[in-house]
Amino acid sequence: MRIARLVGRWVLRGFLVLLVALLSVGLWAQFSPRPGVFVINWLFSLTDTGEVKGMSATGVTGRTDLAYGTGKNETFDVWSPEDQTKPLPAIVWVHGGAWIGGDKSQPAPYLRLLAQHGYVGIGINYSLAPDHHYPVPLRQLGDALRYVQENADELGVDPDRIVLAGDSAGSQIAAQYAAVVTNPKYASEVGIESALEPAQLRGTLLHCGPYDPPMVMNAGGAGGWFVRTVGWAYLGTNDFTDPRVKQASIVDHATAAYPPTLLSGGDDDPLTEQGRAFAKRLKDLDVTHEPYFFPGLGHEFQFDLTRPQSREVLDASIEFLGRLGQM
Fold first, then answer.
1. How many whole angstroms separate alpha carbon 74 and alpha carbon 146?
2. What is d(CA 160, CA 181) in angstroms, rounded to the nearest whole number?
3. Where is the Alpha/beta hydrolase fold-3 domain (predicted)?
């Protein structure tokens, strides 16, 4: 009986400790996005989102962890054809991860697949939320682009032929920077001086991105919680009437000068609603664009190259890049 009472006390104490911990975390979550960010990154760790499957590149060489700045996250990888003999167009890719996670290593296999067709593929890292807030990653993309131009000869890049690319949150960052390059009024509003002249930016490749954040900030359920958590982490505020929410919308700030764009998304991905809205905006502006939206596919489907639709997007991207090179 004594042992049973002791066990009962320890169980009760354990339950009370767990209850206090949960209440403390719940209280903390009212004042900080960090508990939610922890949960989301843990969920990310249980999936292979962002990993390329089904194909691998040949005839490509690369260097990793080169520095474009002094910050610990200001690094990039560069991939080039082994037989390169002249400067080539550069594809500068911003990785996904909801602005709170991810790494340049995730899209690297995809960049190598593109590089083998005659491009220099550059994948950048950037500082993550909630330790760093908007527009820090946008500024870092500009710093990376300046570094690429200043070191174009050493990198084998033609600085007058740049393509911005990205997936998920990285797609939003790349798309927003393209708006900065092509809309001086918007650049001034964001407070960023473009690292590129509009003529240098030949196009964008954008996959599964959030291009109109205000569209989903009031969504319900788990999806709404996710959006508001990462939005809070990235923007540094949980007041979603803050002007920065609308400022981060590419749908609202793209102009007729926006570069030719290829977009992809799957209809099972809640972000595809924003992709379609962005495609409609580009159509209304008479901007050259190629939308690839497929039923039954989810977020980051383009990296699973065992799927025919993903192969279609890759093939279309290669053809799209080829047309840009002729412009």
1. 13
2. 13
3. 91-302
